Predict the structure.
Amino acid sequence: MGNGIGGHVSDEAMEQYALGTLPEPQAAPLEEHLLTCPQCQDLLEQTDAFLAATRSAARKLMSESPRRPIQLWLWAAALAVGLVLFLSVAQPWHLLNRAGGPPVAVLLRSVRGPEGIVGSGAPHGKPLVLVADLAELPAFGTFRLEIVDSQGSRVGSFTAAPKDGKIAVPVARPLSAGAYWVRLYSPSGDLLREFGLKVE
């Protein structure tokens, strides 16, 4: 996996993964580690953000200075050094996942049917934004959203602040196909609502 300190992914391996140059035998265990390690998920986000900024700056330089290759080379070298320094001192940011493209918004509905969970539908393999309506619920500063699979095992837990009578919770790690329950809790842990979610 190219582990760094404390069993986490090293900066070099993460950079290769973000660039898509990490060999598959190393990428598979790295991706498994990312599923359970918030610190490395944050590092991946930081790496992706910095690489995007670097590419944007390089494109801008190329369009503005097509006849100055030495200056462009110096800028590229400076950006590469900046990437190394950034990765060595960067602080964790909010988790965002690079897999699956742009997130898909899913309006949660609370529905039970004869076949079990038949609520909202969502595509598998895509990051999601789960949207829950807070109508007729007490006003709290934050709510907690928990996702459990059909066997009751917790898949994820998120905290979100309401806006315009709703909460929108990004679920960056794509969910596997299957049936899930999404439970909405008050800050004190009282269950307020339960939604069905089928990922297909």
Observations:
- Confidence is low (pLDDT under 50) at residues 87-99, 113-117.
- Residues 104-199 form a domain with the Immunoglobulin-like fold (CATH 2.60.40.2840).
